[in-house]
Amino acid sequence: MNETIDYYEKNAEGFAHSTADIEFSGIQDVFLEGLNEGASILDFGCGSGRDTKYFLQKGYRVTALDGSAKMCGIARENTGIPVLQMDFNDFDESDKYDGIWACSSILHLPERELKNVMIRMERALHAGGIIYTSFKYGDFSGMRNGRFFTDFTEDSFGVFISGVEKLETEKLWVSKDARPGRQDEKWLNMILRTVRR
C-alpha cells in the first residue's frame, strides 16, 4: 500500500485535475437512492473531493477520508470541510454512518487486507446501511502503473464477498470508464448492504 500512497503523493495534482470534472452523477445517484435525505456519508478514499462536494450540495452530511496527505489538502480546498488522513487499515469506527462511498479506492488493497477493511466498513455503518464500491473489471492482482490493484469479475467478487460476514450484494453492474479516451476499460460496481441478524 505504501507504493500506492507514494504514487498519489507524487501525482496528486495531475490525478485531481484528470478526475475532478468527470460526469459521475448517474452512479452517485444510484448510491443516494439507498439513503434518506440528509443521511450521513463517509467518502472513503475521497481523492480530490469531487464526490464529497456532490453529496454536500445534495444536502447530505459527509465525512471525507483519504490516505494521501496531498490528496487530503486538495479535497479540503475543493469541499471546504476537514478531510481526515488515514490508512484504510487503521480505520476503526462503529455504528456511525448511513452510507459509505468507496469509489475506486479500496481496490488498491490486496484481498486479505480488503476483507479486513470491509469488515471494518460494515462495522462503521448503522444497521441496514449501504456501501458503494468499484473495482477494475478482470482477474488481475498486483502492481499496475505504480499502484497496487485488486480486480474482480462478477464471479470472483461473489466468491470474495461470501467470506465477509454481514454484507450482502444488493446491486452489481458493469460500466465503462467515465474518463475520456478510456471507454474500453470496464468497471465492476456494487451496492452492498449490512445484514445483521
Give a concise summary.
This protein has a single domain (2-194), classed as Rossmann fold (3-Layer(aba) Sandwich). It is 34% helix and 30% strand. The protein is built from six helices and nine strands.
- How far is the first residue's CA from the last residue's CA? 34 Å
Rg of Cα set: 15 Å
| Strand ordering within the main sheet | 3-2-1-4-5-9-8
Proportion of helical residues:
25-40%
In terms of per-residue confidence, which ranges show pLDDT below 50 for 5 or more consecutive residues?
none
Give the tally of structural domains.
1
Strand content: 25-35%
Might you state the CATH topology name?
Answer: Rossmann fold
CATH superfamily: Vaccinia Virus protein VP39
Arithmetic mean of pLDDT: 94
The CATH architecture assignment turns out to be: 3-Layer(aba) Sandwich
Biggest sheet, open or closed, and with what strands and sense? 7 strands, mixed
CATH class: Alpha Beta
Q: Helix/strand-derived class?
A: alpha/beta
Shape type: globular
Number of helices: 6
General description of the model:
The chain is of the alpha/beta class and 197 residues long. The model has no long low-confidence stretch (mean pLDDT 94). The chain has a single domain, classed as Rossmann fold. Helix 1 (2-19) packs parallel to helix 4 (69-79). It has helices spanning 2-19, 25-32, 50-57, 69-79, 111-124, 154-161; strands at 40-44, 61-66, 83-85, 97-102, 125-136, 141-144, 147-150, 167-176, 186-194. Helices cover 34% and strands 30% of the residues. The N and C termini lie far apart (34 Å).
